Every structure is written in C-alpha cells, then in structure tokens.
UniProtKB/TrEMBL annotation:
This is Type II toxin-antitoxin system ParD family antitoxin. InterPro entries: ParD (IPR022789), ParD_sf (IPR038296), Ribbon_hlx_hlx (IPR010985). It comes from Kumtagia ephedrae. Keywords: Toxin-antitoxin system. One of its GO terms (biological process) is regulation of DNA-templated transcription. Belongs to the ParD antitoxin family. The keyword Transit peptide does not apply. Gene3D superfamilies: Antitoxin ParD1-like (6.10.10.120).
Length: 84
C-alpha cells in the first residue's frame, strides 16, 4: 500500500520519530489506524444502542428531555464546584 499524506503530516510524523516518541513512520500510521478502528467500534455500538432503543419504543417530549438535561447539568456543575 502506498499512501500520500501531504507535507504537513509528513513533517508531523517525521518530528515524532525524531523526538523518539515512535520508532518508525509505520508505527505512527498503525497507531492512527488503531485509533480509527476504536472510534468506529464505539460508533457502531452507539448506533446499535440507539437502534435497540428505537425498536423498544416509548417517547419523551422535548420538555422532558430539556428538563433531564438541565438536571444533569446542575448535578455536573455542583460536582465541579465541590472539586469532584
């Protein structure tokens, strides 16, 4: 496989190798692909969860959703104020 990533990314990759953070350019590309694979797996799981929820049925009004979000935001802000 031959891939062109452009000058910007070439410089970025070369700098990481020079700094010793990675042993080779290929190692960096493999790490990037692992991250993409992980993200895709998470998105797939999220889609499956959403599809299952839709299939289960039920509904909430926009007001109920807003109230729930506001409640969670208040809880989060309280936790942040307490340093948690």
């Amino acid at each position: 496989m031959n891939v062109s990533i452009g000058k910007r990314w070439e410089n970025f990759v070369n700098d990481l190798v020079k700094e010793g953070r990675y042993g080779s350019q290929s190692e960096i590309v493999r790490e990037g692909l692992r991250l993409v694979e992980e993200r895709e797996a998470k998105l797939k799981a999220l889609r499956e969860t959403i599809d299952a929820s839709i299939a289960q049925g039920g509904s909430h009004s926009a007001g109920e959703v807003d109230a729930y979000i506001d409640e969670r935001l208040d809880q989060w802000e309280a936790a942040q104020a307490q340093g948690k």
